[in-house]
Amino acid sequence: MQLTVWTYEGPPHVGAMRIAASMRGVHLVLHAPQGDTYADLLFTMIERRASRPPVTYTTFQARDLGSDTAEIFKTACREAVDRFQPDAVLVGASCTAELLQDNPGGLADALGLAIPVVTLELPSYQKKENWGAAETFYRLVRTFAPAPAGRAEPRAPAPVCNILGPTSLGFRHRDDTVEVRRLVESLGITVNVVAPLGAGIADLARLPQAAFNIVLYPEIAGTAADWLMRHHGQPSVTVPPIGVLACGDFVAAVAAAAGLDSESLQELRSRLPWYSRSIDSTYLTGKRVFIFGDATHAIAAARIAADELGFTVCGLGSYSREFAREVRAAAALHGIEALISDDHLAVEDAIVAAQPELVLGTQMERHVAKRLRIPCAVISAPTHVQDFPARYSPQMGAEGANVIFDSWVHPLMMGLEEHLLQMFRDDFEFNDAAEPSHLPQSAMGNAAPKAPSLPLAEEATPPLAPVEASLRWAEEAESELRKIPFLVRGKARRNTEKFAAEQGLVNITVETLYDAKAHFSR
Questions:
Q1: Exposure of 432 by Cβ count < 10 A (0-12 exposed, 13-18 middle, 19+ buried)?
Q2: pLDDT tens, 94-104?
Q3: Per the record, where are the segments of Low complexity compositional bias (predicted)?
């Protein structure tokens, strides 16, 4: 067993909470100890909900373990139904309560409640948050959109669809839903139901009325969509419209499912293609990017980086083990091996080894990149309060491509600006004490003293990246290396270390740095 301080996903009961918090008229009764109520803060503090999630905890304590904890659950369940009057109640156990084996489903059935009870089996020691959300949504769909008798016949194409997958606490799910719905309706297609976000029990019962399903996040809705395909004959569009090229594929797939002519549809408008064709974009062509996140966003980000912005994908990975095959296939397109791990330290080691010039990841990778002084953009959950902006900020659709353009390119360009400020801060014209150079010499008076500054080697900055144990960088060489623009600094470092290794050198000095430069300039 490995002790984890940070984790990419919570236990599966947090996924169940996300589904309950997304829907109307659904309440979750969770058999859990007092300490497990921390999960409320994910919704009130990070997502900034105006109210607590619709969850009742049994909150048993240590002293209750010697008594009847099953009775505690039955009392909590009965009181929750009487107080909140939900249309349906979910019952399950947290990771701690699972050890008690109190069987919340059987206890709730014994109460004879007047509303439907959906029992959740959440194996907390084998599965995680996204699986818990997918399982909860699947159980709700299966309960309230039951399979008809007989064999399901394939649906004929028709312009009516469901949008499945967006949830509470999802990365930009709220704005993605608005953007995708706007895009779909602009094609002349009617949106029947959006679920689970904003849906009620009656909406789930209407799911079979659509001709096809749009699965925005397979991690959440993939299981339910497969069940709807098998038992109601509804095909699914599983292309997430993240990026300009993916949006085009999405529109074509949706048009085919709806029986429309995709060639006559209006072209998406985004500023990202304009930038990719501009002169400015050539400054970033070939820059090395490391990508990590959930499967949906990581795979989409790799395609945008390589095919739309001209970056070189030097690392790709995901913590979504259920989608490891898809991530590995995407990594193979870039000639690299995928990293499938939920150990943030292993991800950090992979970033150091890849020496990227941009990191696209979760909040955990943002902390790593900040420590290594590498530009970074957050593309996936797990999220922080800053990933729920008050402004409209989708990742999907045409506007999503604009948001991605801003959030990816700006860190690189601002990093270049920071380097230029650093490079010229001691220049006689540009330091803080310098007089305006455009004024006559007589008006300038005596030359201002040079602004004091610390030598680069003495600055309290972390090393650029760990080096091999056999190589040691002298302070003067590290200082000289930092004068190189960050856009090419990584390449200069790699070339210098390669040159030193070939020459059998152990210590890298300033002379070694310039010898390597001369060697690779031939």
A1: exposed
A2: 877 677 777 88
A3: 451-460
